[in-house]
Write a structure and sequence with these properties.
The protein folds into three domains: 4-154, Adenine-n6-DNA-methyltransferase TaqI, Chain A, domain 2; 161-204 and 366-412; 231-364, Adenine-n6-DNA-methyltransferase TaqI, Chain A, domain 2 (Alpha-Beta Complex). It is α+β, with helices and mostly antiparallel strands. It is built from nine helices and 26 strands. It is globular.
Length: 419
């Protein structure tokens, strides 16, 4: 396959966004300003920014800065290591305003395929050039001119289209799996809220317990009414808990061979841990399917171990003593929400000790209610695990294919299979 050398500026245009005055930032409105928080740089895709509450913009701006569905954007500021060179695709027209920290990429269509460009800009080749040319300040910056000055080698347009289509098909499948997982998670969480927070689990007649007049009794330790037959307890009553312990730094293996190691919630992906580190001297283990809970800020963040792994001191590993991973998972989710609420009120939890974790007060439901919940939600939970594993496989396949496709070592057939 013939590759032709170009400067990016010869095959695409790069424009900087608008300078938006802070006086017009708002907590609600019609338009949302794009920021670097809209880049999921680990998965190289768009994400809604949930880090701020004043993302709306109510001032005037030029229409050229209002983004269209399918527009490609890339950050101009590196607010996290590895952010420069990331790409994202705008999911909806007429909603997002391009701000000055975000560049818009427009391809010259006779030379560069749009899908191919998305992966070209986020490739190691371009990222390395942007990193080398970035201004060396505390927060590094690039510019439209520096992006356009990057050197690339690309195949002819027809091959670009095949490569772009293949990679987009893989990413579309990954995104579909993530959406299914999010929907399954929302369904199970809603059922948990109905049954174990509002106490409207189904009674013997198939009716909501509390709403149908089910007997409630005062529990002095919990300081609340709970269904008759339910009890109070602590987390250690229903869960086996392993506290993490980080190995000595000399045991890390740079080659990537050894035991999977997760240090804390920064290693968490969408649903499963996704950033893998390695060590040759693990001390505390979690089993595949264990719930991993952050014991350092953000305290209470939970995820699922998708492999046997070693856990560092930022995590604890939990599995159910009563046989219901789903019930335990959503109990921990509720505890996380409680920590978040306390933090918002000004009582910050920087960490939680082993003793505090063991003794967290909980409601212990009747066994038959847990069993009924597990019967409904376990298949959804198992489905999420399978989809998560498929996501990992697809990501690995895409990331291994990407450099080979871009440098011409692998070609794409007309049926979109690589060879």
């Amino acid at each position: 396959m013939k590759l032709t050398r170009y400067k990016l500026g010869e095959i695409l245009n790069v424009t900087r966004g608008a300078s938006l005055s802070g006086e017009f930032y708002a907590t609600e409105g019609e338009y949302i300003r794009l920021t670097c928080g809209n880049f999921d740089y680990q998965n190289n895709c768009f994400k809604e920014n949930k880090s701020k509450d004043n993302l709306y913009y109510v001032g005037d701006f030029r229409s050229e800065f209002l983004m269209e569905e399918g527009d490609i954007i890339t950050p101009l500021t590196e607010q996290a290591i590895g952010l420069l060179g990331s790409t994202a695709i705008i999911p909806e027209s007429g909603k997002y305003i391009q701000s000055q920290d975000v560049a818009k990429i427009v391809c010259k269509e006779d030379l560069l395929d749009k899908n191919f460009a998305f992966y070209l800009i986020s490739s190691a080749l371009v990222k390395q050039q942007l990193s080398a040319a970035a201004q060396q300040t505390k927060i590094r910056h690039t510019s439209p001119d520096k992006i356009k000055d990057c050197t690339v080698w690309i195949p002819e347009l027809s091959e670009q289209k095949r490569i772009g289509k293949l990679l987009r098909s893989i990413d579309s499948k990954i995104e579909l799996n993530r959406q299914i997982n999010q929907n399954l998670e929302a369904m199970a969480k809603q059922l948990y809220d109905y049954w174990f927070v509002q106490f409207d689990f189904l009674n013997e007649e198939g009716k909501p317990y509390k709403s149908s007049g089910g007997n409630m009794v005062w529990n002095e330790k919990l300081k609340r009414n709970i269904p008759i037959g339910w009890n109070n307890g602590t987390l250690i009553d229903i869960a086996n808990i392993t506290m993490g312990q980080s190995p000595d730094g000399t045991s890390y293996n740079e080659i990537g061979e050894g035991v999977l190691f997760y240090q804390g919630s920064t290693d968490f992906g969408m649903r499963f841990p996704s950033v893998r580190q390695y060590t040759t001297a693990p001390s505390r283990f979690a089993k595949k399917g264990d719930i991993l809970m952050s014991v350092r800020a953000p305290v209470g963040a939970v995820n699922i171990a998708n492999n046997d792994c070693c856990i560092g001191r930022g995590l604890s590993a939990l599995n159910s003593k009563i046989g219901s991973t789903t019930h335990l998972y959503y109990i921990l989710n509720d505890l996380r929400i409680a920590f978040d609420q306390r933090n918002a009120a000004g009582t910050t939890f920087g960490s939680i000790t082993k003793e505090d974790l063991y003794n967290l007060p909980i409601v212990i439901p009747a066994k038959e209610v847990i069993s009924a919940f597990d019967k409904i939600c376990s298949p959804m939970f198992d489905r999420q695990m399978l989809l998560g594993e498929e996501i990992d496989t697809l990501i690995k396949q895409r990331d291994e294919l990407l450099p080979l496709l871009l440098n011409g070592q692998v070609l794409v057939n007309s049926d979109l299979s690589a060879h």
